[in-house]
Specification:
There is one protein chain. Helix content is 35%, strand content 27%. It has 105 residues and is α/β, with parallel strands linked by helices.
Length: 105
């Protein structure tokens, strides 16, 4: 199951997580964001207990969006032990996300 993260809970849910975390920076009005949403939802179910999939609405989280230099969406950041380990910008097939995540497990 995906979790919602924002300026208020990002540190607790992403940075302090003991599992790898995929953070999808998205917006309601973004077409490519809607294209990858079902892919990330599938990954969240398949990797339950092994990894966390989080969504961060860029319109509602300006501090986090700015801190990580998010300029294009969708941008997906892969965190391991609180640090960015990988990044994917734009809509790509599921296997791109899965291979990046598997490298962190």
């Amino acid at each position: 199951m995906e979790i919602e993260v924002n300026d208020g809970n990002f540190e607790e849910l992403v940075i302090k997580s003991d599992k790898p975390v995929i953070v999808d920076f998205w917006a309601e009005w973004c077409g490519p964001c809607r294209m990858i949403a079902p892919i990330l939802e599938d990954i969240s179910k398949e990797y339950a207990g092994k990894a966390v999939v989080a969504k961060c609405d860029v319109d509602n989280s300006p501090m986090i969006t700015s801190k990580y230099g998010i300029r294009n969406i969708p941008t997906v950041l892969f965190f391991k032990e609180g640090v960015i380990a990988d990044k994917q910008v734009g809509a790509v097939p599921k296997n791109n996300f899965v291979s990046k995540l598997n490298a962190l497990l």
